[in-house]
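hey
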């Protein structure tokens, strides 16, 4: 089972409080340096998702291959080709039956069988939208799709859609240049955390009406350019990938306080991309 979180960089790095390659890393507990385990043998891992039972890690590589990792021993359990070049979003349904992947180039979201990668559906987000770090509601019925386009009518938005068929429910608009990169949903489904890489902040949104509840400015924490997000199982900690300093911020979701400053200062693995939390 996973503890702490998993970071995609050049490798997979399973890491905890205390911390582009071809490895992944893990650790746990506060300390002055990252505690980690590196899983090598990947070809530029981009984004990650874990199965609901925590037993399988899905690693989407730059070439579109999704590698399945058994979390009991971190051994490779299989792989399949998604058909998505440079995948920038992946999520597992709560019942474990579906893997969702965003296709930034085509402006679509695909549905895949977790074991084989067989296509079981897809739908369009729209041209010029650049869908990125998608997230699902706890019941799996709703999918939140950040539109990471840098300009045009599809930019600076997050669309809320029916996960089964992509039907548009709501559109959340952000200030020009915000560029939402990823989203994470609280365990009770009431709040959605949105990383605004252009706005250099985390927007905390009310899932029911799309209104912004609060905002956490990363500049005040000495960091810039938030990327991917992951929540702890209890929803008390938000893991935020940052470009500068290279690493991950761990924020208390009650107030946005930086829970684990030393990790964000560490940059042994290059610029991290996607990450799921396993604790």
């Amino acid at each position: 089972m996973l503890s702490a979180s998993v970071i995609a960089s050049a490798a997979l790095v399973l890491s905890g409080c205390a911390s582009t390659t071809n490895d992944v890393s893990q650790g746990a507990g506060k300390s002055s340096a990252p505690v980690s385990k590196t899983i090598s043998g990947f070809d530029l891992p981009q984004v990650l998702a874990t199965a609901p039972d925590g037993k399988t890690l899905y690693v989407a590589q730059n070439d579109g291959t999704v590698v399945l990792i058994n979390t009991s021993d971190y051994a490779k359990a299989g792989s399949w080709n998604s058909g998505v070049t440079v995948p920038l979003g992946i999520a597992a349904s709560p019942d474990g039956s579906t893997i969702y992947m965003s296709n930034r180039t085509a402006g679509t979201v695909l549905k895949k069988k977790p074991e084989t990668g067989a296509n079981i559906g897809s739908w369009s987000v729209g041209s010029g939208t650049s869908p990125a770090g998608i997230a699902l509601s706890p019941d799996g019925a709703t999918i939140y799709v950040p539109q990471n386009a840098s300009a045009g009518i599809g930019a600076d938005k997050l669309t809320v859609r029916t996960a089964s068929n992509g039907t548009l429910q709501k559109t959340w608009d952000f200030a020009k240049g915000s560029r939402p990169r990823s989203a994470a949903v609280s365990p009770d489904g009431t709040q959605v955390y949105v990383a605004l890489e252009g706005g250099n902040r985390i927007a905390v949104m009310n899932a029911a009406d799309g209104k912004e509840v609060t905002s956490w400015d990363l500049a005040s924490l000495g960091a810039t350019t938030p990327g991917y997000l992951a929540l702890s199982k209890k929803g008390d900690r938000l893991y935020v990938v940052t470009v500068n300093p290279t690493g991950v911020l761990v924020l208390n979701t009650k107030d946005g306080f930086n829970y684990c400053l030393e990790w964000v200062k560490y940059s042994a693995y290059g610029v991290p991309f996607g990450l799921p939390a396993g604790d």
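The two ends are 9 Å apart (CA to CA). Residues 128 and 154 are 6 Å apart (CA to CA).
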